[in-house]
Amino acid sequence: MTQEIKSHFFAIRTTGGQEKVVLGLLDNRIKLKKLNIQSVLLLENLKGYVVLEAIDANAAFDALQGMRHIRGQLRGELQFKDIEGYLIKKSTVSELSVDKIVEIIGGPFKGMKATVTRIDHDKEEATVILLDAPYQLPVTVDANYLKLSSQ
């Protein structure tokens, strides 16, 4: 009979902007020393932190000992529900439909409004017609650069 191993999540505070460096350092240390760490997560919306998944607080503490850019650890541990929203990304393309008005929030057409004319669910792209352009110009845009307009 296999025993289920319960892991724990810890929020590790890092020097601002050094999250990727810490992630790389931790990854190397875990591989070299074969530490009992299940995963290290870099959450886009959680600036200044990485999340460490470990068997217990001691395993997490051992992995971080003497590491550069570590500023501390939040007291206690995170529950899975605290980070679940960061892990499961809802596809933007699923919210779009033809003839909807969208705002472009990234790329060269950022800030413009457009009408969706076609959606490619596999590529997560949408073809839109820019509303602000003097003539109808179809443009294919990454769906993540689009958000439904409040209009």
Describe this structure in words.
This protein has 151 residues and is α+β, with helices and mostly antiparallel strands. The chain has two domains: 8-87, NusG, N-terminal domain (Alpha-Beta Plaits, 2-Layer Sandwich); 92-148, SH3 type barrels (Roll). 21% of the residues lie in helices and 32% in strands. The protein is built from three helices and nine strands. The strands form two sheets. It has a five-stranded antiparallel sheet with strand order 8-7-6-5-9, with no helix packed on it. The protein is elongated, with a radius of gyration of 21 Å. The N and C termini lie far apart (58 Å). The model has no long low-confidence stretch (mean pLDDT 86).
- The second-level CATH architecture of the largest domain is 2-Layer Sandwich
Q: State mean pLDDT (0 to 100 scale).
A: 86
Task: Work out the number of β strands.
Answer: 9
**What class would the helix/strand composition place it in?**
alpha+beta
Strand order of the largest sheet: 8-7-6-5-9
Main sheet: strands, sense, barrel:
5 strands, antiparallel
Oligomer designation: single chain
Low-confidence stretches: none
> Roughly what percent helix?
10-25%
* Amino-to-carboxy terminus distance: 58 Å
The 3D shape can be described as elongated
Q: What is the number of helical segments per DSSP (H or I, 4+ residues)?
A: 3
The percent range for strand residues is 25-35%
Specify the CATH class of the largest domain: Alpha Beta
**Domain count:** 2
Q: What Rg do the Cα atoms give?
A: 21 Å
**What's the CATH H-level homologous superfamily of the largest domain?**
NusG, N-terminal domain
